[in-house]
Amino acid sequence: MAINLNSHLFAGNPLRSKTPKLHDPLSLSSSFESLKSHLHQNPETHPPNSPFFKVLLFKKGRPLVSSSIEEEDGVAPSWHLGWIDLADCKTILGKHGVQLTETSLVYLGSRAEEHVVYWAMDVFENRELVTELRNSKQLCFVELRTLMIATDWTDSWVMGDLAIAGHGRALLEWHNQSRFCGHCGDKTVLKEAGRMKQCSNEICKKSVYPRLDPVVIMLVIDRENNRVLLGRQSRFVPRMWSCLAGFIEPGESLEEAVRREAYEETGIEVGEVVYHSSQPWPVGPNSLPCQLMVGFFAYAKSLEINVDKEELEDAQWHSREDVRKALRFAEYKKEQRLAAAKVDQMIKAVKKRRSSLAGYLAKSGELAPMFVPGPFAIAHHLISTWANQDPPTGTKAQMKKPPSGFVSKL
Q1: In whole angstroms, what is the distance from residue 3 CA to residue 67 CA?
Q2: Which of 17, 35, 95, 282 has a Cα at 20 to 30 A from 376?
Q3: This prediction's pTM
Q4: 3-class DSSP state for residue 229?
């Protein structure tokens, strides 16, 4: 079956920041002033032209979500973001000793077709709050990586929700990592509704903006275009192989980073480097909340592998037929449905958990000899694009006809 993705997961955010215009009620500056008015006065009373406000709570990087549709007749449940109206949010948090202020909220943006502005907020561990949200609102904090796997790629609304959740987590984790000025050490304060921070020291006043951690991820292809180089890390589940990847160093071009990482990790020399696509990746460690995966095809000039064991557990050349078989037999859709059911169980506090074996099993029920990451990852699209294309006559032809990368035959 073919899955058509208009964009990678975590891309295609439907909320966009409005350009700060004086008379635009949905702009960042106007929304922030309206927000302060609501919080310091009666939030039930909306001034003229004031937008409505909704808040998405996060706890330790996990967004608040709901679940809909009971699993029956083959229809799996679907998760959605658990937005709470500003007034309701203020009441719920106040009951548990959490004060809602304009400095605790981060501006996410607005939808073009709505008169609503969306905000994100981080809340600390509070069991009573978690219990109330689950019992009264049927809402639960869920790991972003779990939601990533549970996302139905054919549902554009849920794809948008995942992008919003990724954006919110990245911003909030950046705020947690930048509480103090890196220049003088004084505390930083929020500016521009959380889109930047500034040192509180009147002498320093350094401005701090959200960080971006670019990562190159590359599918290394041999000279005959018949095999690809895939690596394994020790943290991978058994039989999973993926593309090589690494962080870009200061003063280094994207192409140079691809060549350096390939050589450092596997001893393979890379010549031509061809851009494929990019993907925001907010599911990394808390210390690196704003990763951007930049994907490439990289054409090898050498074949002998010399694995750096500190970086990889193993690296091997895999034939086109082996990769096609791995894509053909892995049941990524089944894995998605099981993850969605798991999220539903978490929200409804069901103790029974169903383990996910999809991706590890062939459709016959036997263990697949190898598999690659699912369609939620850019690695999958690099690999599936190469595996399912007609072999080009050479790398020059490859450059003249860039691969689409968003159609995966599973």
Answers
A1: 23
A2: 17
A3: 0.87
A4: strand
